[in-house]
Amino acid sequence: MTMPTNLPPEYFKIEKRYKAATSQTEKISVLEEMLTVVPKHKGTDKLRADLRKRISKLKAAPQGKKNRSKTESAFIISREGGGQVAVIGAPNVGKSALVDLLTNASPEVSAFPHSTWQPLPAMLAFNEIQIQLIDTPPISRDYTKPELFDLIRRVDLILLTADVQADPFSQLEDTRILLEAHKIAPLRLKDRYEDPRGMVFIPIQVVLNKHDDDRTDENVEIFFALVEDNWPTTPVSAKTGRHIEALKQVIFDRLEIIRVYSKTPGKPCDKVAPFVLKKGANVEDFALRVHADFAEKLKHARIWGEGVFDGQMVQRDHILHDGDIVELHI
Fold it and tell me: 174 and 281: one domain?
């Protein structure tokens, strides 16, 4: 099959993730994501049809063994939920305690550095969806496994954690420098790189942990006074739970995802377990997530939600919004 020449750079980035995918579920998810970024015109019809066929074939295939292969790296983690978020930082900044509080995962929490030796995924339940958080080994100048940076390059969002009671400015700078050395940089600073070849640009949210009470307010103020580039920052406390709910909302917002509910014609919508799509997704993208055949056979849809009257008939290119209810007609 001849590859169209006008595919966006994002397509090839996602394609690399597909080649690295190890599980059936992850391959399906990545293929669906690839399909959403392919431009919709005659030149891409064959490519989009091929992607749909591959998705259908994978969904129809029996599930493989769930046990991890002995040779499979612990740093290869299949995506689950509405997004994959790496919680990273220097030693002893409280990453594991933070993940524990957000997900009730109970990872190993220690007062000593380097207590987390392997990445540990856990699920954050928020706004009726699940978001995958990955507690990671500390990033340190002394030694960090190269596999950790490979993992970080694949995620949707980075929570760069620092200890507000122990020089968070230096912790941020050291971690940023190590990320950059491994070709990882903040998405919002992408335009600063004259030669972005080989670089991966990912949204980064700074989390100032150990902001336990009002006595650390001054530490937070000093951090904001010293830090450059207006880093998006959320002060929290994994110990007392301070501002944790605000952090959950920040994670949801930074992932730039929407929740869309499916409705069966003639039946009320059961607003449970919404489908999760990227902002800007349309009805065709939603149909693909429901079932690959629906996208091909779709005639129209009816929408309840933002910018439409209840039950308005729309076509496949209609842009969806968070909380929309969609009734597909094939």
Answer: no
